[in-house]
Amino acid sequence: MNLDKKERTMLNKNRRSFEKLFSDHIQCSCAAAEALKNFLNDPSAENPAFSVIVEQESLGDEITRQTHELLDRTYITDFDKSDVERLITKLDDILDGMKTVVKRVRNYNIVILPPLASEFADTIIGMVAILQNLIRGLSSLKSSSMQEAIRSIRSLEESADGFLNSSLEALFRDETIATKKFIALKEILERLEKITDYCQDVIDVISSIVRKEAR
Length: 215
Known about the structure:
Layout: H1 5-41, H2 49-73, H3 81-107, H4 116-136, H5 143-173, H6 179-213
Helix pairs in contact: 1-2, 1-3, 1-4, 2-3, 3-6, 4-5, 4-6, 5-6
């Protein structure tokens, strides 16, 4: 694509705008992930962590709206428009997932969560931190850094799979748990694991962008 100076300037400005939106969105996920760990350790009504997650999810929705709005009014983009839409959507899935988990805990009146729930939160914190570093350096990401991040995310996601299996086995063996509570805890644990899948989805989109940038 042959662009004149004015068009190239506009292209660079739009790129920075999208990168800022991506960066702001993953920052919401980082804040929400820390609050998620706090909440899972103490899901009492007095814990303000619930409100923090709801607020961060709302901010994420607003950033997603701004991204789509910018995309609609931008004629030329340095990123493929489909990649921008996929990335912001997958980022939003992470926040939506965390909000859903804490709402389920409240709706089901869960006061004590399985011990490995906190391990899930630590895993999510680690994954969103990796994604944040990648997004902050999106303009200059090298293939080697990308591959290292992919390995780290994959390792954490596999750990989450292990947490889910171990937690479900423990729940199944515990004959003191009522059926309704078993179903509720199973859903919550599965939703926590799903958040790590969303993180994997995000890095897949970033990897696609980096490959295109290298062409």
